[in-house]
Amino acid sequence: MSERIPVLSLKGVNTHYGPVHILKDVDIDVYAGEIVSLLGGNASGKTTTLKTMLGYLKPSAGAVYLDGVNVNDWSTAQRVGHGLTMVPENRRLFKRMTVRENLEIGAYLRDGENLDPDFDRVFEIFPRVKERLTQKAGTLSGGEQQMVAMGRALMARPKVLLMDEPSMGLAPVLVAQNFEIIQRINNAGTTVFVVEQNANMALTIADRGYVLQSGNIVLSDSSQALLANPQMRAAYLGDV
């Protein structure tokens, strides 16, 4: 039997900001069809992990792999073209542009293609977005902006969707809805890697999880095992 190859992986990755050593020998595997969560507190290296995956930062040691191919020398655009796309922290919409224009930007590498099926997919998941197409993105509520940010990412037809703190700045009821939508996107065939401080919520929907602390992976297991882990419960799940 041939070995199963992850769609996205980090192998022995070390990443620096100048002289500051952020990620330290990080190993992460994400397989097709999974939801995998990366958990950790502030300044643990979570966003640096995403930037390294996307090529904003190049590892000082180790490598990023997409479908088993070392992509350390690939640009961010090349990685997006290969199916890696991110929903950034705080949405990062172009607020003076319309909702439609923001969505179209998600498909910028597919110039000249018919985008109607992609718009239809976004509208099926986010009916509210269709109602707001001509509205300036900056006038939307926080929840609506998150919908547009997720829709923009889906316009790239990602194989792997990276999500950076999707619950940040949202009311609790919207957080729950947001994670339900992440599950729907995954069920429709998109692999999801979610970086999140809300460990309880992230592990509820994820298949597996990694815990990052000061740039080191300190725990890695199934979500059920992490939820039951005493160390995890004391440090991240609010148990005494």
What is the topological layout?
Layout: E1 8-17, E2 20-30, E3 35-39, H1 46-54, E4 61-66, E5 69-70, H2 76-81, E6 84-87, H3 99-106, H4 116-125, H5 127-131, H6 142-154, E7 160-164, H7 172-187, E8 191-196, H8 199-205, E9 208-213, E10 216-222, H9 223-228, H10 230-236
Parallel strand pairs: 3-8, 3-9, 6-7, 7-8
Antiparallel strand pairs: 1-2, 1-4, 4-5, 9-10
Helix pairs in contact: 3-6
Features:
240 residues, alpha/beta, Rossmann fold, 6-stranded mixed sheet, 4-stranded antiparallel sheet, 10 helices, 10 strands, globular
Please characterize this protein's 3D structure:
With 240 residues, the protein is of the alpha/beta class. It folds into 2 domains: 1-83 and 158-240, Rossmann fold; 92-155, no CATH class. It has helices at 46-54, 76-81, 99-106, 116-125, 127-131, 142-154, 172-187, 199-205, 223-228, 230-236, and strands at 8-17, 20-30, 35-39, 61-66, 69-70, 84-87, 160-164, 191-196, 208-213, 216-222. A hairpin with a 2-residue loop joins β1 (8-17) and β2 (20-30). α3 packs parallel to α6. The protein is globular and about 45 Å long. The mean pLDDT is 90.
Write a concise synopsis of the structure shown.
This protein is α/β, with parallel strands linked by helices. It is built from 10 helices and 10 strands.
Helix content: 25-40%
**What strand line-up does the widest sheet have?**
6-7-8-3-9-10
CATH topology of the largest domain: Rossmann fold
Beta-strand residue percentage: 25-35%
Radius of gyration: 18 Å
CATH architecture of the largest domain: 3-Layer(aba) Sandwich
The low-confidence parts are none
Q: So what's the overall shape?
A: globular
SS field, number of helical segments: 10
CATH superfamily of the largest domain: P-loop containing nucleotide triphosphate hydrolases
CATH class of the largest domain: Alpha Beta
